[in-house]
Design goal:
Elements: H1 2-33, E1 36-49, E2 56-66, E3 71-76, H2 78-83, E4 89-92, E5 100-101
Antiparallel strand pairs: 1-2, 1-4, 2-3, 4-5
Length: 102
Amino acid sequence: MVKLLLVFFFVIFLSPIFFFLKYLKKKMGEQKKSFWKGILVDKKHFEYEDDDSSYTKDAYVLHFKTDDGKKVKFDVSRKIYDDWQLSDRAEKTAGEMLPKKT
C-alpha cells in the first residue's frame, strides 16, 4: 500500500515538475545556442494585477526581426527594456542569453 502511494505521489506531483523543468532547460539551451543579427521592431509592457490584493507584476518584452526575416522575442528586465529604442540594431551571439546593441 505504501509503495502504491509513493508511485501515485510521484506520478501526480513530481512528474509534471520534472517535465516542466526539462522543457525550461531545453528552451533556454535553444535560446543560448541561437545567433542572429536584426532590428528591434516592437517593445511591449504588460501589467498583471492580482484581483485579491493590490499586488501587480510588470512584464517587459522586446520583439526583434532578424536579417533572415524571423521574429524573435525576449522577456527582459525594466532596465534592459528602457535601454532599447525601436529600430536599434541588435546582434545575438551563440552562448549569450540576450542580444546586444550594435
